[in-house]
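hey so u asked for the seq, here:
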Amino acid sequence: MSEAEPIITLRGVNKTFTRGKEKLEVLNDLDLDIPKGSFEALMGPSGSGKTTLLNLIAGLDRPTKGKIDVAGKSISDLGDSELSRWRSQHIGFIFQHFNLIPVLTALENVELPLLLTKLPGPERKKRAATALRVVGLEDRMGHRPAQLSGGQEQRVGIARAIVHDPTILVADEPTGELDRHSADEILGLLTKLNQEFEKTILMVTHDPAAAERATIIRKLDKGQLV
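ran it, structure tokens below
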């Protein structure tokens, strides 16, 4: 099998934050290639720059210096509205805190990203229902977050991340709020999305058991890959 083309390429990426007069260098001259279709875990101590790196790749933040290409686009050069449009097409976000809206049902929570598209209402609902079926929650579509377990809430979060068929899934501590059994179920679901649906997944985790599910484990320390 030939080596997959990189879907994410970083060259000479630096990220510096300024606090008052102090400059904090979080990422330092980073080069990285992530192959299309891979499932990568990013590990490292708190403050090593993992979430910053994830945010740069997802187009939520911009590098201080360097070049980032994702899914064939040089995202470090895009203007704000272009970047926002690109993100809505290519990136699915999975958060540690499920970030569901308490007054909405599972179906309505999953449908939310599609409200920014031109899709008609019935088509949005159909896609949201399909995403919930993929994550095994077809029998919970009408339930609100308070009526779901933590593992089910995270499944709704994953359904919301995949409803617009993104190229890349970025997951920031997706099992951080879950017990071991629920965490293992969520990791099984991410593996399925990677293997059956060929999603490229980049996951930040502190959990060695979660990292084991990835095909590649990368370690970040003091802003550099080790």
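Residues 37-59+78-225 form a domain with the Rossmann fold fold (CATH 3.40.50.300). Residues 96 and 176 are 6 Å apart (CA to CA).
lmk if thats what u needed
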